[in-house]
From TrEMBL:
InterPro entries: Papain-like_cys_pep_sf, Pept_cys_AS, Peptidase_C1B. It comes from the Bacteria. The keyword Metal-binding does not apply. It holds the Pfam family Peptidase_C1_2. The keyword Signal applies. Residues 1-19 form the signal peptide. This is Aminopeptidase. Gene3D superfamilies: Cysteine proteinases. Keywords: Aminopeptidase, Hydrolase, Protease, Signal, Thiol protease. Belongs to the peptidase C1 family.
Amino acid sequence: MKRSIAFCLMTMALAAAQAQQGGITPELLKDIKDSYKPTPSDKAIYNAMAGTSISVLAKNHENLANFDTHFSNRVVSHGITDQQQSGRCWLFTGLNVLRAQMMAKYGLDEMEFSQNYCFFYDQLEKANLFLQGIIDTREKPMEDKMVEWLFKHPISDGGQFTGISDIIGKYGVVPASVMPETYSSEHTGQIADLLGLKLKEFGLQLRQAAGEGAKETTLEKQKKEMLGTIYRMLALAFGEPVERFTWTINGETKEYTPLSFYQTFLGNDLTGNYVMLMNDPSREFYKCYEIDYDRHTYDGRNWTYVNLPIEDIKEMAVRSIKDSTMMYFSCDVAKFLDSKRGTLDLNNYDYASLMGTSFGMNKKQRIQTFASGSSHAMTLMAVDLDANGKPKKWMVENSWGAEAGYHGHLIMTDEWFDEYMFRLVVEKKYVPESVLDILKQKPVLLPAWDPMFAEEY
């Protein structure tokens, strides 16, 4: 007994000594403190930072004069949308691309599609995607990486361009007046929490039934009943989607279904007519990649993209804008954003001078260390080219309301574009054959939990 106690004490002492080898010892703390020799400037900076935002103090006022709003090439657009307190930027961006096409085609002064209508079906489809995923993985343990990922992400209001192609291709679109916004569609936090909580509960019930020997047909029946509950929750929050409606254009009134409306006025093949591009220098360029389970419907397609150098992507973007065609675009929007002026510029803030140290990681290193990734989708609609045809700056139509940024837009320098632009979706007619050939490769399959592919909000 005494030997056991002594052995335990010795083991604990050894563990403590090993832990201390990498810890901050009193001696190490003294060396660290002694290395800091505060100057009068440090005192002034501390006093300022004690009561002021770091971004306010780091704002580079020398850069305020360099605010040029001229663009050599710009797609005409009318009306800024507002996603309010929701994560539906991906949906607003996709619908803004389509409405610009419809307005140009039919000479309309204004047009807006119902985000609420599409979002209803997006949430229903995501619920089914989760529940079917639980059924598919029923024989795997709870500790399995895929099962864990499913329960961590049962549903969300964020998304990707795959949501546009999956949802609109299946359910069509309607004008905004046919199914207007509700409080819950504009403030999605609470309903998202409730839906997620219910789906996790349903997921456990399906796994329990499977563990007790329930056949797949029985599980599918349970899933159907569960989706009925989700449908009711969605109908209470957003209203029930319309099935038929009348709409007038150029003095002619007709009845449409959401699908017939889309086919009549747009009719785009959203799956086959668009190419998704990525600039991710942490992975090999000129390769095709697919993200597992990165879709909005179970019967949809995973997001598949071509990874390209930034200069290749710019060429296609310029080609599209010159042809008056907007594009789905996403980036790390919070980096160096001056929200009042609506500019994205590496020189907006001088954190290095304020903090007395440099921040030297490049784009590849920021991706590898999870310091940067795509966070927000917008509509790329303008570029300013120099005399040699090289981009100087770009502009996007945002969905934060007309009062946000530069009249509802954000203007980014080309240098910022290089560092924080990640994704672009372009029509195939603007894509070189060499890039289209890459899509014929067998894609490299990446896991659903890859941090580079978080949803855009």
